[in-house]
Fold this protein.
Amino acid sequence: MKKIALVIPIIIISLSFYFCEKDNPTADKGNLVELKIPVATYKYTGYDSMGVKIITGWIEFLFEDSTDITGRWELDKIGDPQNIGPQVGSGYLVGSLENHQLFLNLNPEYVDNNVFLICPYDDQKLTGKWNYSGFPGIINHGTFVAEKK
């Protein structure tokens, strides 16, 4: 009986990981990557400081309460932009909403290698700034637009 009690939770957890992985597949189409954007997310486009598109993908966040935010993201670079920090691939984010300003940290597990998104909060379209910060301070920056899908 004890073995069955241990096996059932393991099966449930394994199935949840299997189905979660199926939510965010990407398909390589030559040089273009077509993202399957999960429901209730924002389609994200990032630009460098000169306005050149360098990042595309999606971000998703949930309000834990009136100010605390958690979420996840999946972003791919366009071309070969330099010094953009760890905003390529996928990960988890944390953030807050203060005075109608959204502050998101795409790399909460790092102390000095972070990409921050800052913008006024709008539940349909986010337009703001990103910056890549490290030990010496801001290393690079740009703008972004994220539209709810």
